[in-house]
Each structure stands twice: as C-alpha cells, then as structure tokens.
Predict the structure.
Amino acid sequence: AYSVHGNLMEGLERGSYSIYLGCAPAKAEEAKIGIRKVLESVAKKAPSSAEIKRAQAYALGRRAMDLQSDASIAAHAGLQVLYRDAVTHADEMAA
C-alpha cells in the first residue's frame, strides 16, 4: 500500500470509522487481508493508555491544522450550528 489512513465520521451519528488504503489493483486482496489482521489484533488487545493519549494528541493537532483556512473554519462552524445549534471552539474540543 502506498497510503493508509483512517477517517472518523463526526456529526449526528458519531462513531462511524473508515479506513482508506491506496494500493495497486493487483494488491487489493492482500491489502484487505492485512488491514483485517490489524483490526482483529486491536479488537483482541485494546490500545494502551499511552497509545490512546498519543492518538488523542494526534487528532487534536490534526484538527488544529485542518482549521487554518477560512473555508475550513466556515465549514466547521456551519456543521456545528447544524448539528448542535452552537459552535464549539477548538479549545473547548481539546478540553
């Protein structure tokens, strides 16, 4: 695979998570098997508290980077108003 990342779907129906994996078509089945093995491993042995803290820090950092353009800020605020009838600022989300 030349690219692998996860996507957390936020909104009214939170909790949906997807995994994107980019690879050559000939490698697709092998890539699916590999991702399934990783997911099964995580399901059997939960992440440690250190891993969870690292993931939280990454998510907060990623969000801060994502909210650096006017368009991103407007989209975030619009979705917040639509979903929650209020805007949650980045510092509130971090807390």
